[in-house]
Amino acid sequence: MFRDSKAFSGFSSDDVAAASKFYGETLGLDVTEENGLLNLRLAGGGTVLIYPKENHEPASFTVLNFPVADINAAVDELTKAGIELERYEGFDQDERGIARQDGPAIAWFKDPAGNILSVLEA
């Protein structure tokens, strides 16, 4: 039914301007804003829509994952940009906040609206 549909994902933010600055300037993504909606253009052609929501509540799960070749370098860049990595019970995270067991090395961080993002070694 939807095999040829150009599907995209989306999630909310309580401050689209802050989201635009974070995703565009801090993370370096291609960001456009139209009619109060934020569009992220991802490598490989994917897109994500970020829409305003006054009563926004951040998801309790990861909404966007960024695969990288070198997670140590990516975590260093996030830290230098002032981004604090999240720590979660049940995950054996090293001093940098990277979990390295049971799958690819992964670290989590949040956007200005509290949405959970990850960087993982691919």
Description:
With 122 residues, the chain is an alpha/beta fold. 17% of the residues lie in helices and 32% in strands. The protein is built from 2 helices and 7 strands. The strands form 2 sheets. The protein has a 4-stranded mixed beta sheet, with helices on one face. A 3-stranded mixed beta sheet has the order 5-7-6. The longest helix has 11 residues, at 16-26. The chain is globular, with a radius of gyration of 15 Å. It starts with 8 loop residues before the first strand and ends with a strand. 20% of the residues are buried. The mean pLDDT is 95.
* Rounded Rg: 15 Å
**How much helix is in the residues?**
10-25%
Tell me the major beta sheet. 4 strands, mixed
Q: Uncertain regions: pLDDT < 50 for 5+ in a row?
A: none
SS elements, strand count: 7
Shape: globular
**Alpha-carbon distance between the termini?**
31 Å
Structural class: alpha/beta
Output the number of helix runs.
2
Oligomer: single chain
Output the strand order for the largest sheet. 1-4-3-2
| Percentage of β-strand residues | 25-35%
- Summed over residues and divided by their number, the pLDDT gives a mean of 95
N-to-C order of helices and strands: EHEEEEHEE
Strand-helix topology:
Layout: E1 9-13, H1 16-26, E2 30-34, E3 37-41, E4 47-52, E5 62-68, H2 71-80, E6 106-110, E7 116-121
Parallel strand pairs: 1-4, 5-7
Antiparallel strand pairs: 2-3, 3-4, 6-7
